[in-house]
């Protein structure tokens, strides 16, 4: 059933409201995908939280407009961003059967519009929505026999080859609408209906075709193969058969509609594929959900599977059977616990605690000083109280309901089940198929404190608050447009770095410290608007800010027993961890207070919208009474914590490891220097406009991220619902650690995996945006890193200039084999000992 979706057309005046349709599809059918023919906000919203995948269409009339990048950005802002990811939009179709319109202007704008929408999605920080466009079979010049299938001449090279190239690059499918209904004649009706027939023999391949659907798919496949694109996926955007038509209309009957659609569903789900594409399964969207009374022509009105009152015209095997009654006695083979549901609010959980403790049950253990007081959160206390109530009353499931805020589990909540993922195949299944289920973040002991009780993007539980704050962070700091606007700051700060190196020629230079100061200064200036004379790394009065940050990293990355055995949190009082945590929190808090205070002051004086930095924006949003998610000071501080914790050390660590690897690999260093000196020949420095030409440097950065990912276990996740991965049931609330290092050095995917070899990425389409699951330095899916656009240009510019201006060597007397490459414990994996190198001036002219 997984592969069968349904087209939800709305050319009718008698259809039920979208909310009812969404509930019907979710509860009564096995469809888990729908496709709509416009960006109808009511429909898209109605499918929020249903788990149903939604394909949205840009109508043909909007193609010319969205071919312009700014209009495409608007389109995405209006039609995707407000709904995604609560509605699981997974594909945008740009137009519908555009080639069939014959409108040359429209056709010429189709691919540019697809590209513009794709770019707009990336700019909005959305990496997992594909872009495609459905084609009618009219695009074919020949389709019989299937092996001779070819696209219409001229269109094949001018339109389809570049479009297929786009599909290949963006890993999106080619979408077609095969309708045997429009292709059969007197002699081929059985062949079209998947009924018994002699089949059609393709002499060129020796394959016998027993149904027209396969033949049409293989014809398209042959045409794609002829152009060299047989690796691109095919999705069946529409197919169907009407159940009624005009009197005497050939082939139209209820019986034929049943035969075609029932057999089609079985055929697709069987996974046998087609003669030329054996063992492949094609995502297939039936046409259509409802009969549509405003369509022209009787048969056109009767493609539906359901009437507007949801009664089936016929069942193609997609109606859910009614649930079997639960067994009289729940099996007691294992012990069960009652825990709060992941989506239960703190307010609801507090009222559960009040209810249980008010009912006479002993709640001393969760009072201050009691053995279960720690962790001191509403959720942890509710977990204790709700379970106590459930157990005392005999363990009946209804005693764990708590107005739908309780959940019976077989996992002992006092220890936390953890799944470590070390294979790209499992990561693929997680991020491709179960992304939402894996989108939770555990409220880790240290992170909870340092993120103001998970008030930031990185550690916020999956839900509305996370969505809102991630949107703010992306729009105001990390979108491609914003990042571009900071280019002069990057340029100035990298020049400052080059100058600092120049001041210490021929003596030991601490690259690690310089990289951290660079990253910190850029972040401070773009997020907090600090002037360059207030560079964070050079602050001498108070404790250096990066020292505080190192401690933060260690606290966040270190093993903490309370994260795995909550009942043993008391150990942290004894081993001093609580004290360290409190101290670090106070230091950070003081810093954030100062940042906010400075901004409140300066806001009172001036500030146009144009020169607002991120903190100004947050303060403005805080004052807006119409804001959906009200921001308090602690929320703002939580977001500042994000930027420092997730944004500073990651980029500087990458710079540090690139330089370390280059010094160990003189051949690669030399090649990179030759490239950069060639590209920026005659200039005084490398500029951002040169970066796109530095192909080898980009390979070096990829290879560094492969061997030294700044977050080797990504950031921990927690499942928010149970799901099946590779036949194993993963329960809700399981801690998930993705071992990116193991995956990125797995010999199954990487030859000679431990050798630093940038050339391995040459001519490969492996990108770090979370689509290649063997390469995940930034994670993947909806909780993947939104800071890629922000960090990569800075890393590239810094390395390019360091290589352009200077020759590099190890400290005198030190040999390459003596360089300490050990990693330090922390959330970000930096070098344990700072990287110190010697620079000498390179004669540019
Ligand atoms: C080389 C640089 C960077 C690397 C390697 C990196 C890596 C990562 C990784 C592995 C994750 C976890 C992803 C997952 O769970 O799938 C993450 C999350 C995150 N990163 Fe980055 N990051 C980098 C730079 C940045 C920058 C510059 C910022 C912002 C200024 C940033 C902000 C975030 C945020 C907010 C999250 C949490 C996302 C969420 O939970 O929704 N990162 N990063």
Question: Strand count, sense and closure of the main sheet?
Answer: 9 strands, parallel
Report strand %.
5-15%
Please give the count of helices. 29
- Kindly state the number of beta strands: 23
Structure classification? alpha/beta
What name does CATH use for the topology of the domain at 433-841? Cytochrome p450
Measure the end-to-end span: 67 Å
Give unreliable regions as ranges. 323-334, 531-543
CATH superfamily of the domain at 433-841: Cytochrome P450
The unique ligands bound to this protein are: protoporphyrin IX containing FE
Gyration radius, in Å: 30 Å
Outline: globular
CATH level-two architecture of the domain at 433-841: Orthogonal Bundle
Q: Would you kindly provide a written description of the structure presented here, covering whatever features stand out?
A:
This protein has 845 residues and is α/β, with parallel strands linked by helices. Among the domains are: 337-414, no CATH class; 433-841, Cytochrome P450 (Cytochrome p450, Orthogonal Bundle), CATH 1.10.630.10. It has a nine-stranded parallel sheet with strand order 5-4-3-2-1-13-12-9-6. Strands 16-21-18 form a three-stranded mixed sheet. A three-stranded antiparallel sheet has the order 17-23-22. Helix 9 links the parallel strand 12 and strand 13. Helix 5 (104-123) packs parallel to helix 6 (155-170), helix 17 runs antiparallel to helix 18 and helix 25 (649-664) packs parallel to helix 29 (788-805). The N and C termini lie far apart (67 Å). Bound molecules: protoporphyrin IX containing FE. Protoporphyrin IX containing FE binds at residues 457-458, 470, 473, 478, 642-643, 646-647, 650-651, 654, 710-711, 714-715, 717, 777-780, 783-787, 790-791.
